[in-house]
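Weekly modeling sync, notes
Attendees: S.R. (lead), two postdocs, one rotation student

Agenda item 3: backlog of single-chain predictions. S.R. asked that every request posted to the team notebook include the full sequence so nobody has to chase files. The rotation student volunteered to paste the first one in as an example of the format we agreed on. Action items at the bottom.

Example entry:
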Amino acid sequence: MFLMKWLVMTIAVLAASYVVPGIEVTGFGVALVAALLLGLVNIFIRPLLVILTLPATIMTLGLFLLIINALLLTFVAWLVSGFAVAGFWSALIGSIFISIVSTLTSSLLKK
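Predicted structure, as returned to the notebook:
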């Protein structure tokens, strides 16, 4: 199950590099590493950020979660050589795109 989710996230990262301007991935291996780190960051760091920014999330009716996702995508790009995000808007659109592709691909694989 873990390998399947990792592969789905890798496909989503690769797709984002083709569709979203400002996101670049130099190869499949880099996408694998970026997807793994993105998954780990979402498991361990994202919940802490969500709790710490709960007032902002409530005041924006949940839209601040999009900013958290964009910041985490930028953080992963900073950590992984060969994976680059050009700016905030690329990170925001990329994080939304990766979430949508990952969710759709996972739901198709479950059927």
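Discussion: group reviewed the output briefly. The CA atoms of residues 41 and 47 lie 9 Å apart.
Action items: rotation student to repeat for the remaining queue; S.R. to check formatting next week.
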